[in-house]
Amino acid sequence: MVRAGLTADRLVEAAADLADEVGFESVTLSALARHFGVKDASLYSHVRNLQDLRTRVALLAGGEMIDRIAAAVAGRAGQDALAAFAGAYRAYALERPGRYAATQIRMDQALLTESPNFRRTAEITYGMLRAYGLEEPDLTDAVRLLRSTFHGYCALEATGGFGAARDVQASWDRAIAALHVALEQWPRQEKSND
Questions:
Q1: DSSP assignment of 157-175
Q2: What Cα–Cα distance (Å) separates residue 22 from each residue in 25, 47, 189?
Q3: Residues 6+ apart with CB under 8 A from 145
Q4: N or C: which end of the chain has fewer CB within 10 A?
Q5: What predicted TM-score, i.e. pTM, was given to this entire model?
Q6: Cα atoms in the Cβ-side hemisphere of radius 13 Å centred on 110
Q7: Nearest to residue 147, comparing CAs of 170, 164, 128, 163?
Q8: Phi, then psi, of 113 in degrees rounded to 5
Q9: CA–CA separation, 74 vs 99, rounded Å?
Q10: Helix axes 78-95, 116-130, angle to 10 degrees
């Protein structure tokens, strides 16, 4: 591979591609250096360390994922928006497994707060849920329900964890319909009069 023009952005993009090929946990600075035909030390002028590289991949992937979700939910509300959101989430997770795995890492809260993609993700997600009439703390609880459901489903599907003869897409559609009902019937948190 060509050494000229090595930049942090090129390293991150290559690391994201490598993650999709071999798995996020298998991405190393040595593997990336081999890809570019350079010594490991050459990468340190572009990224601080492996954790920095992985964080950058997570931020890149998070941006790509929310772009897909935003395009899917544009102009939609209620169950239609929920299904579009969930479908875009699932498609990204299955098509870009390494990048998706990167979006699941624990990141420094200050870094997330500064990230425009993280803010956009929160705005789009919370905006969709506000259509169900949810307010805090119910919004946070609903986000956690959706994320855990989507992630669990995608993780099981990606590893072949659904062995029953029932069509996986049909089960997904029923799960989204059930989530819609749960959101419509959400048990509202009593507001305190403090």
A1: HHTT---SSS-HHHHHHHH
A2: 8, 21, 44
A3: 179, 182
A4: C
A5: 0.91
A6: 0
A7: 128
A8: -60, -35
A9: 23
A10: 140
Judge if the upstream peptide bond of residue 137 is cis by omega within 30 degrees of 0. yes
Q: For residues 27 and 109, is the Cβ–Cβ distance under 8 A?
A: no
DSSP letter assigned to residue 38: S
Task: Encode pLDDT of 121-180 as tens digits.
Answer: 999 999 999 999 999 999 999 999 999 999 999 999 999 999 999 999 999 999 999 999
DSSP string for residues in 65-115? HHHHHHHHHTT--HHHHHHHHHHHHHHHHHHSHHHHHHTTS---HHHHHH-
Q: How far apart are CA 194 and CA 192, in angstroms?
A: 6
Distances (CA, A) of 121 to 55, 74, 143, 169: 17, 13, 11, 25
Q: How much is the pLDDT for 2?
A: 41
The Cα-based distances of 41 to 12, 24, 29, 48 in angstroms read 16, 21, 9, 10
Tokens 């040595």 sit on residue = 30
